[in-house]
Amino acid sequence: MSLLTIEGLDVRYDGRRVLHDVDLSIDSGEIITVVGPNGSGKSTLLRTVIGAVRPSGGRIIHRPGLRIGYVPQKLPVDRSLPMTVRRFMALPDAAPKAAVEAALARADVAEIASSQLATLSGGQMQRVLLARALLNDPHLLILDEPTQGLDQPGTASFYQRIAAIRAETGCAVLMVSHDLHVVMAASDRVICLNGHVCCDGRPEYVASAPAYRALFGSGTQGALALYRHEHTHRHDEAAE
Ligand SMILES: Nc1ncnc2c1ncn2[C@@H]1O[C@H](COP(=O)(O)OP(=O)(O)OP(=O)(O)O)[C@@H](O)[C@H]1O
User: Which residues form the ABC transporter domain (predicted)?
Assistant: First the structure.
């Protein structure tokens, strides 16, 4: 059984349709990256999966007992508040000290447990958010643009850690990313979203398929084209 199955998902904000007819299933241990233009519904899809947004149609079926860890796009607290990493890890629910230390170690930031949030670099803060999402030992790790604002080495090393965590724990990963060249290298599957699922496949297959190359070119150009590609079908995102 899949960890999670999405069937015919439809999401509207104040009647405006943002996602429609989204079908997707996620298996154990898969790394899936969602790409797509700004406003194409990527964050909405993740937020619907975690239950923060209510769908207006379709359904999401969780495997019984599924544990999800979520790394949000934005930090849920004011970083200027005086607070150590250890204290932040205990929000909103206190976790055993050993679990906090283990999660920080898994995210490769064990040494900053006593540091103030305000003193952390962007890369360290992302690792702390990752550690927080690992606290409940998730079967599915969901990350919304986790490398936003990081430089290229920081981005590459973050994805390497994600791959290592998948290898160590067997968790599946569903993430949104704009770092297309890294996405192509680090994902098992890439999903291009633009209100609905436009393409879904293995990155090497998508990038090397003759039809794809004919349309979008190859290499990074191809990756960029995947992101920006012209659709031959219509996207009617207006409310019906
Ligand atoms: N809470 C909300 N209320 C109303 N409209 C919303 C809400 N959240 C998102 N939207 C709108 O829904 C659409 C999809 O937004 P979403 O954040 O899911 O896109 P995205 O693909 O993640 O974009 P980006 O790449 O810019 O992060 C946008 O037009 C956005 O303005």
Answer: 4-219
